[in-house]
Amino acid sequence: MTTETDSNSGVGGGANAGANTGVNGGVGNPAASEETGISAVSVTKLVKRYGDMVALDQFDLDVHQGEIFGLLGPNGSGKTTAINCILALLAYDSGTIRVFGQPMTPTSYALKRRIGIVPQNVAVLNELTVTENIDYFCSLYVPKKAERAPLVEEAIEFAGLQDFRRFRPGKLSGGLLRRLNIACGIAHKPDLIFFDEPTVAVDPQSRNAILEGIVRLNKAGATVIYTSHYMEEVERICDRILIMDHGRHLALGTADELKAMIGTGERITIETLDLTDDTLAAVRALGFVIEANYDGTQLDVRCGRGEHNLVDLLGVLRAAGASVGHLTSQPPTLNDVFLELTGKALRD
């Protein structure tokens, strides 16, 4: 085995999902349409301690049905602990957790049948073929072979694994293995899917295919909770994003709303070959400049928010007689938000 099967199958499932529409044509339990206005996941004042260490500190989370929700934070921030508590895989000290409006407990089997998880560590059986792996994980919640067969076929087609049905995992590339991992996690058509860094160490083509697949699942009706250290992925597919650290909720909003919360403005880069130390000092003395660096060919300036940053910067360079070549001005990124809120870069 590549890893323990519990990490992929223990919380997913959908014995009741067998009658739902196919992966390509619709995901989700028909009952979900009756739950308008009810959050897919609601976490209130969650506290989890490991001895003297507080892993979750009055943590709040509210995921709307039908959205792709990004959950971000550095390693050790409490993301995994929060997810394990939500899935009732980990006991917690206080707080409340509801999934689709119902309390989540270790014996909430009806709720667990509506949840799928695609873990960061690939969880498949090396002894089985692609088809056999998907069939095995689906069988944990859809026991009847006749009901399961079309679900397995739909998952194979969804993941683009038609040409690899008889391959064992050891013969698959990293990207194909990730797609198999996803197919195993979504074959039962869950209403709520957790994706934990599903694109780690895959090539750009496979990453794009995975992201497009997640969007298709969401458009078909699934609510998605997505964690990643690739900020551009989160910005690309997530409707709302929560940044957490030290077990606490730091900020929540769309990518644009989060960017508006910070003081960082654009990043300006200018090609110049004759910038003197005095001119660089004059640039750094500008009130909006947070950081300015020069490598002999390019000036890189990180700015605070302002309406005339580029004009003022060019004014200093021209007054000093410095040459100005190609220049770019980029708005703040989600990574800038993360750095300002947590003070540290996302880590693998």
Automatic annotation (TrEMBL):
This is ABC transporter ATP-binding protein. Pfam families: ABC_tran, DrrA1-3_C. Residues 1-28 are annotated as: Disordered. The keyword Nucleotide-binding applies. Residues 41-271 form the ABC transporter domain. The keyword ATP-binding applies. Keywords: ATP-binding, Nucleotide-binding, Transport. GO terms for molecular function: ATP binding; ATP hydrolysis activity.
